[in-house]
Amino acid sequence: MGRSPCCEKLGLKRGPWSKEEDDLLINYINKNGHPNWRALPKLAGLLRCGKSCRLRWTNYLKPDIKRGNFTNEEEDTIIELHQLLGNRWSTIAARLPGRTDNEIKNIWHTRLKKKISKSQAQKTPELQEETSMETSKSDEQNLDTHLGPENSNFDIHLESDNSKDNSEISSPKTNSEIQQQSSSSVHSSSSISSSCEDACSNTTATSPEPRDQFMLDNLVEIDDDFWSEVLWTTVDDSNYNDNNFDLSKNN
DNA sequence: AATATTTACAACCGCATGCTG
DNA sequence: TCAGCATGCGGTTGTAAATAT
Question: Name one GO cellular component term (predicted).
Answer without folding.
Answer: nucleus
